[in-house]
Amino acid sequence: MKLKLIAASALALALTASAVYAQDERVLVVAHAESTDSLDPARGYTQTTGIIEQVTYETLVTFPVENAGEILPQLASDWTIAEDGLSYTFNLNTAATFWNGDPVTADDVVFSINRLKNIQGNPSFLAAGIESVTADDADTVTFTLAAVDPTFLTKLANPALSVLHAGLVRENGGSDAADAATSDMAESFLNGTSAGTGPYILEEWDPQVRTVLVRNEAYWGDAPYFDRIVIANVPDAATQYSLLQNGEADIALDLTANEIETASTNANLVVASTPGNIVHFLLMNRNPDIGGPMSNPLVQQAVRLSLDYPGYVELWGGITPATTMAFGLAGAFGSDRALTRDLDAARALLAEAGYPDGFDITLDYPIFTFQGVNMETNAQKIQADLAEVGINVTLNPAELQISLEGYRNGTQGFGYWFWGPDILDPNDQLAFLPGGKVATERAQWTEDMADSEILALRDQALVETDQDARLAVWAQIQEYMQQNGTFAAFLQPNVSTAFVAGLEGYVWHPQWLVDLAELSRAE
Amino acid sequence: MPLYRYILRRIVFVIPLLIGITLAAFMIANLVPADPINANLPQSQLNNPEIVAAFRERWGLDRPLPEQYLTYLSNLLRGDFGTSIKTRQPIGADIARYLPATIELATYSLIVGVGFGVGLGLLSAVRRNSIWDFLARGLSLIGISVPVFLLALIGLSVLYVQLDLVAGPGRLDFTMSEPPFVTGLLTIDAALAGEWQVWQSAVAHLVLPSLVLGLYISGLISRVTRSSMLEVLSSDYLRTARSKGLAERPVVLRHAFRNALVPIITVIGLSYGSLLSGAVLTETIFAWPGIGRYMFRASTSQDFPAIMGVSLLIAFIYVLVNLGVDILYYFVDPRIRAA
Question: Which residue, A327, A372, B206, B227, has most beta carbons within 10 Å?
Fold first, then answer.
């Protein structure tokens, strides 16, 4: 009897609770696994900061809504590049204003860029190549670079290079001085509100609980649809899905393949899938002491020809990339240029390399699921694929941080990792060429052992600023890497998102994931 | 022995224990073959030796381990737990932020767990080998053997999504603001502020996670209650009480239950300690911003100061709970007072 009473009263309590914010407001609830410890554009540098800064701040230049294939004006109306490629002069859009109505001036730009550079926060590397930034007059600003950087405009479109209201930030302890790393005290201010020109204003950030954005009523561009956006921090994918099913959330950003599959059969939900910009690849160490047989370029090509590429796409959706350069970056080959499996050719290459009966090798990888792709499953498939040409793979999974240590120290002979571009520019791939971070430090493919052809192409890519000429160079680099690289890229998985039917305007973006200001509800 | 001396003696024993825990936590955290640099700096910054060196210097990672440990201890004596590498906030402030959520959930879960556990245990001991006994033992077996995250997921899927009987994840509706901070316990703060809609939401959001965690701990509590009661019920003095014509109800509740309490209190105390030290999986599934999730984040990012702070906190919670249990023994068992 007593048990019944307890159950009944618990139920009654639950049923009475259905309080809502403000009845007449248009509120968007986003379920997201928050991944940042700062909403200060100069300090936070994660997927979460990208989503939030995209709607609370703006940059001088930006990307189109749906991709990163082009550079468009935003706070700058136009710009000119000096002959020597070292200085860029921007004319500011005089219509642009901060949320308090103040116009955006060249001083705000100078302050924001210098602050980012000097704070030495996680995204500060993006401004490292800027030697100086000066205000020519109230509406004109000139950047001088230390060296020619073909990726400069791409970097400038990153939300970390947002323009902040200099006066407001200074009043709250902000500094752009050379010692800003220790003297800037504006982080807690910027964690509580935003000082930008974007369509929304940060109203509240309760770390680990939720982030609330309110519409910037003084926004100088087109007004967004929703009055308020609540980003609920929900770390577990299954929980995000339950919120979506119950209608408590409008969109869930971090669902795994399991939930996406269930969501696609739910009539009240919509699933949107696009190939993301993460490339899964095998690393084959060029140092014979570490890589053993894997250090042999013939064996490396045999590995590339042994993988059952369509099998990975079948598992996770997405496409087969041609190289480690993600399809979608300017000039990247599509899956029509990807390698295909050829076991006879692979066996012949192994025989030529002196391993007609194959060999034994250990595959290192982290115990990790990224954006729904379980690396363990892929590792097992790699093991099965390579067994067909006599390469006997022993799997060696390890906790992420531990495996990462081996990867970063370059002590893994044969490793399975994934890469997401830091900068949405083909030059991001320099990391995979001799002298680059991944090639030289992780895979020990050094400039000494690389042939002159790839080194010459790399040097051209480093300085070429003409877009057509750049793309021609990158086409040659991709062809070279497919045959002679020290990596085997095998999957560029889909990114899938589910949202309630009637939500409109969703587009996945490689830089900021989703532009929340583009979303609306069908009336 | 008077109560204050009894408590004082317990507290004196605690000091070396806490020092030992700091040392153990420090050694374990440093034995992990991974570098906090890799966990806390993005790949693009690892290229820059200046940034890496500044990071090591800032967090004292460039100094020898014994020196790091002694600095930590001396700061600790001044009440300074250090600053979290990950959140860049003082650990004390982080704990104050996340612990109340865990305390609130743990306390409601304990109420549910003790209610179910002791009730079922009593029922099955008194009606031994009846259908009630089998049902109660079956339920306690579920509590003990089904992993808590599975209970949580089933609860969420059935009670929240399918039947819509309980509120979902989070401590409040996501569109609702927290009441002004007084204790950090939302049910109390909302009542103090007179925000009854928020109070309702807070209570409603507690129902499902408390049921799950309560069911989870009730398994052990009911087993211990049952076996402890069975032992007492078959003792000679109860036979005497019955033979003197005492009714069964006072025999069970006044004589038997009171004498069976010591092991029951022990297991309740341990359960409360484990609930208070944060249920990582339950907190993750219910999007509950408690200390368990904070600890998990700290350990996956090798945030040494936070790991040490939370380890100490958990040790301290167990010490407090044990002290509470000891004080209860003092009242329940007259032999302890006499000793």
Answer: B206
Picking from B148, B172, B175 by the largest number of A CB atoms within 10 A of its own CB, the best residue to mutate is B175
Q: Chain A, 207-226: which have a CB under 8 Å from a chain B CB?
A: 207-210
Q: Parallel, antiparallel, or unpaired for β A494-500 and A391-398?
A: unpaired
Q: How far apart are CA A185 and CA B187, in angstroms?
A: 35
Number of helices (H), then strands (E), in chain A? 17, 24
At A235-272, the pLDDT tens digits run 989 999 999 999 999 999 988 878 988 999 999 999 99
A432 to chain B: which residues are within 8 Å by CB? none
Nearest chain B Cα distance for residue A36, angstroms:
9
In this prediction the ipTM stands at 0.83
B74: exposed, middle or buried (Cβ count in 10 Å: 0-12, 13-18, 19+): exposed
Query: CB-based contacts of A448: which residues, under 8 Å, 6+ apart?
Result: none
Distance between A467 CA and the closest CA of chain B, angstroms: 25
Distance CA B139, CA B117 (A): 10
Q: What angle do CA B322, B189, A244 make, to 5 degrees?
A: 95
Question: How far is residue B205 from each of residues A81, B100, B170, measured CA to CA in Å?
Answer: 57, 15, 7
Is the minimum CB–CB distance between A26 and chain B shorter than 8 Å? no
Tell me which residue of B119, B127, B322 sits closest to B219, measured CA to CA: B119
Shortest distance between the Cα of A304 and any Cα of chain B, in A, equals 26
The shortest CB-CB distance from B169 to any of A128, A230, A243 is to: A243
The answer to whether the CB atoms of B157 and A20 lie below 8 A apart is no
d(CA A160, CA B225) in angstroms, rounded, equals 59
A34: closest CA of chain B, how far (Å): 11
Contacts of B77 (CB under 8 A, 6+ apart): none
Classify burial at B78, counting beta carbons within 10 Å of its beta carbon; exposed 0-12, middle 13-18, buried 19 or more: exposed
Option in B34, B161, B211 nearest A405 (CB): B34
CA atoms within 13 Å, Cβ hemisphere of A190: 32
Contacts for B249 with CB less than 8 Å, ≥ 6 apart:
none
Question: Which residue from A11, A124, A239 is facing B156, i.e. has the nearest CB?
Answer: A239
Question: Which residue has 């179910």 as its token pair?
Answer: B116
A247 touches chain B (CB under 8 A): no
